[in-house]
Amino acid sequence: MQGITLEPATEDAVTNADTTTTGTTGANGADWPAWQESWDRQQEWYMPDREERFRIMLDMVEALVGTTPRVLDLACGTGSITARLLTRFPGATSTGVDLDPALLAIAEGTFAGDGRVSFVTADLKDPDWPSRLPYDSYDAVLTATALHWLHSEPLAALYGRIAELVRDGGVFMNADHMIDESTPRINAAERALSHARRERARDAGALDWAAWWQVAAEDPVLAVPTARRFEIYGEHADGEMPSPAWHARVLREKGFGEARPVWCSPSDTLLLALK
């Protein structure tokens, strides 16, 4: 992997389902900061404005719930939102929830020993997943580039559960691909430009999603959780990317008082819902 030097591991980083953990990954030789950096570069291959999305997301957290929020990092992956949250707001606390054992291994290794952060392994399609969380309510529930893996019906059900977790006056934000199907020519032009840019970056050595996972599968620490990850998800997931208007409407129907985009790019939207 470019930019990563890995040393032999002494143990596998395996997440125990149904358990809330705080910094459980021990000293196993893995260079967690390097894995975080590599994940960021791979994600930026798809979203060059990713950091701007995070900045606006945290701007709105500060504007609506202050600088010491209790946050649920939903479908947290490696903890990208949590890392930026704690850098900007050292007094914040974060619960990360995900099902991916490989990405959770990186997250847990990164935040090991940080009492502000805990992680939960859960399937967001399971109606009972909120019962595994350490808190009954949160000031903010934040997610990015994850919920497009769900079809509309389970996503709407998930929005209902999120509404129950957000306190009155709290916020939910989803930064993701949200496609307006009423503008097919604009959408096609954006896709063509993005694909051309990605091909140039790949030719220059950037890792895409598949290449990144191939390297993770060969790593002595991540090989086992990566194999488990593909047992859970397979090679890919077929979800949906409804429009921002759909997301805003459903969030209102599920119990939020207000909902609208607060940032967008040609392909992505950061949608905020206020309880």
From TrEMBL:
<feature type="region of interest" description="Disordered">
    <location>
        <begin position="1"/>
        <end position="32"/>
    </location>
</feature>
<dbReference type="InterPro" id="IPR029063">
    <property type="entry name" value="SAM-dependent_MTases_sf"/>
</dbReference>
<protein>
    <submittedName>
        <fullName>Class I SAM-dependent methyltransferase</fullName>
    </submittedName>
</protein>
<keyword id="KW-0808">Transferase</keyword>
<dbReference type="GO" id="GO:0017000">
    <property type="term" value="P:antibiotic biosynthetic process"/>
</dbReference>
<dbReference type="GO" id="GO:0008168">
    <property type="term" value="F:methyltransferase activity"/>
</dbReference>
<keyword id="KW-0489">Methyltransferase</keyword>
<feature type="domain" description="Methyltransferase">
    <location>
        <begin position="71"/>
        <end position="170"/>
    </location>
</feature>
<dbReference type="Pfam" id="PF13649">
    <property type="entry name" value="Methyltransf_25"/>
</dbReference>
<dbReference type="GO" id="GO:0032259">
    <property type="term" value="P:methylation"/>
</dbReference>
<feature type="compositionally biased region" description="Low complexity">
    <location>
        <begin position="11"/>
        <end position="31"/>
    </location>
</feature>
<dbReference type="InterPro" id="IPR041698">
    <property type="entry name" value="Methyltransf_25"/>
</dbReference>
